[in-house]
Design brief:
The chain is rod-shaped. It has one domain. The mean pLDDT is 88. Helices cover 74% and strands 0% of the residues. Helix 2 crosses helix 4. The longest helix is centred in the middle third of the chain and has 41 residues. The chain is built from four helices and no strands. It is an all-alpha fold.
Length: 96
């Protein structure tokens, strides 16, 4: 966005030269806010999932018996590694 505006500004009037950078700043703030919100929700949901697993012995037994399937590569090993580190649960990786 900034590269496009930098090319157009010398050819535009003074009002556009004032409004365009303000618009670019607001647009960048909107995109940054969206990305931060998305990442925050992802981490919040992951923490809730790990807390649920920590308090659910039935799920833990199923995971130890390799009965837990997962449709995401990250969760196969990353979530179980976090569970081991954060909650001292020794669970094998989920089945992808």
């Amino acid at each position: 966005m900034a590269i496009f505006i930098a090319q157009v500004l010398p050819l535009s009037g003074s009002i556009i030269q004032i409004v365009a950078p303000i618009f670019a700043l607001l647009f960048n703030m909107l995109v940054s806010h969206w990305a931060l919100t998305r990442e925050s929700l992802y981490h919040y949901d992951t923490q809730n999932l790990m807390s649920w697993i920590e308090g659910n012995p039935s799920f833990q037994n199923d995971a130890r018996r390799k009965l837990v399937d997962c449709n995401a590569m990250e969760a196969v090993a990353a979530i179980t590694a976090h569970l081991g580190r954060d909650f001292a649960l020794d669970l094998p990786g989920f089945i992808y």
